[in-house]
Design brief:
Length: 243
């Protein structure tokens, strides 16, 4: 490598990047690189490119490395690795000529692409988050569709809760009554209603529904006695000659 050629390249780089270039030694430089297009409100992202020139430069590729600048946005390892591989591919295409300016220009372009990709990714994530939130709200307000199975499950739970609440009320009422009143209440509560008896046995005989001590009545006997009385009255009627 001719040091004159390298010095000439350094002079060109210093004129283009007066504040970004730092000369570490006669064969090592560092350049702070930022995206080519920096829009207002865009993510601030800058990295340092270090170039070490071997004696065979520019016929061989210089040693390249990237370093994140503190406070200028985080870079993931995979992102750094992709950028380096891309730079080395560009360097291979420019062997035999001074390539540092080309490498820096390409790196700035790739940083612009990275910033844009990150921005689009964030927008997609925010859009997806909003979509999920809207769907969750719609599902909450729409409620769960009722099926025969879900209705029966709800009814069983509802009946159980209703029975439990009724028992609590009855227990509270019993606590405030006398022993005799409590006994009477338990007797009444334990007695089956007419509807319950009917549902229990739809073919109940009439005497099942009669309370103890009630006398049954034979309607046919009543009708026969009534006819006999009517006949006796008819026989006792007499008519006068004047009639």
């Amino acid at each position: 490598m001719s040091y004159d050629v390298l010095l000439e390249e350094f002079e060109v780089l210093e004129s283009i990047y007066p504040s970004e270039l730092t000369k570490i030694s006669d064969t090592i430089i560092q350049l702070d690189v930022e995206p080519e297009d920096s829009e207002d409100g865009a993510e601030q992202l800058r990295i340092t490119l270090e170039v070490q020139y071997p004696p065979e430069y520019p016929d061989v590729l210089p040693e390249l490395s990237l370093h994140a600048i503190e406070g200028e946005g985080e870079m993931e390892y995979s992102e750094m690795n992709d950028l380096l591989n891309d730079l080395r591919a560009v360097g291979e295409e420019n062997l035999g000529i001074a390539m540092t300016f080309t490498l820096v220009s390409h790196l700035r372009e790739q940083l612009s692409v990275l910033v844009k990709t990150r921005s689009e990714k964030r927008q997609k994530e925010e859009t997806e988050k909003e979509r999920l939130a809207i769907e969750a709200e719609e599902a909450r307000t729409r409620g769960t569709p009722v099926t025969p199975e879900s209705f029966m499950a709800w009814k069983i739970k509802f009946d159980q809760e209703l029975a439990a609440a009724k028992k609590v009320r009855e227990d509270e009422k019993l606590r405030g009554s006398t022993p005799k009143e409590r006994e009477e209440t338990r007797r009444i509560v334990g007695r089956l209603s007419g509807r319950q008896l009917f549902e229990k046995n739809k073919n109940l005989e009439e005497d099942t529904l009669l309370e103890e001590g009630t006398v049954s009545v034979d309607i046919s006997q009543y009708e026969r006695t009534r006819r006999e009385e009517d006949e006796e009255e008819d026989e006792g009627i007499t008519f006068s000659d004047s009639d």
